[in-house]
Amino acid sequence: MLVSALNPEALFRARADSGELIRRRAVGAYLGFAVGDALGATVEFLTPREIQAQYRVHQDMIGGGWLRLRRGQVTDDTEMSLALGRSVLDAGAVDAQAAAAAFSDWMRTKPVDIGNTVRRGIAHFRQSGTTAMPENDYDAGNGACMRCLPVALVLLGADAEHVDRANRVQAHITHHNILSDAGTLCVIRMVQAAILGTDKAGLRLLADTLVADHRSFNFERKRVENPSAYIVDTLKVVFQALFATDSFESALIEAVNRGGDADTTGAILGMIAGAFYGPAAIPARWSRHLERRIKQEAVNQAHALLALSPFVLSGQVK
Hints:
mainly alpha, ADP-ribosylglycohydrolase fold, about 60% helix, about 0% strand, globular
């Protein structure tokens, strides 16, 4: 089963003296995530043919797109992740009430973009006070997955069941769906394994385990282009781009040039690849354009969340 199989500590045991490397990879995950969001947002909802006609290859941080963003501006993917991270740091844990309140506060800021399922889940919380939507076969979007990075960081070193419970706590505020749960848990475990130093084969094992449990995620049959916000489409693009390339830059360019929900495929690919390749692999021509406030909070949260993790608190990181 997915929960018991996705145990990154079984893939790699970091040395006690590798704490600085682990911290750098955690920062790489958060910066890679924000960079992927900002780069992909330019071509969100375009088809690959439209991207090719306008940009040939989209590979520069230029803003614009249907949201008319500033260069380096992020979208709801990064903003919701940072909101979740703040709630975790305030509560000292992944807490449903704190997370739902943080999402509600974020929606009051009139964000530049917000998904329909997310909006409905937050409205449900405001009206009922409950922190979980009813299970719904049609809520298999990528909105819970796009914001899962704080869970991966604060629960580095936790047992698989604990991670699974925390994943569902934050996800079910807006997305209560078995495919959403499974895909998001897989991404969390891939980020954790990458931070702990697994190789590409270790990441592939985690993706293959997801496919074995839920065949709809099979990413080998057909190249996915113009992906929708369906979690299956999203992760097929992420896996295809990750395993077909050998650098952060090439993986991210491959993902966002598929078009469709490109800010989210870019963000999710960015968090995994950022953890795997490290922050030094993120091109400076991208990262330097991130808004200073976003970049600083991402770095600060990476360190603060990791400091609360069982891996650090157990003394395995010096």
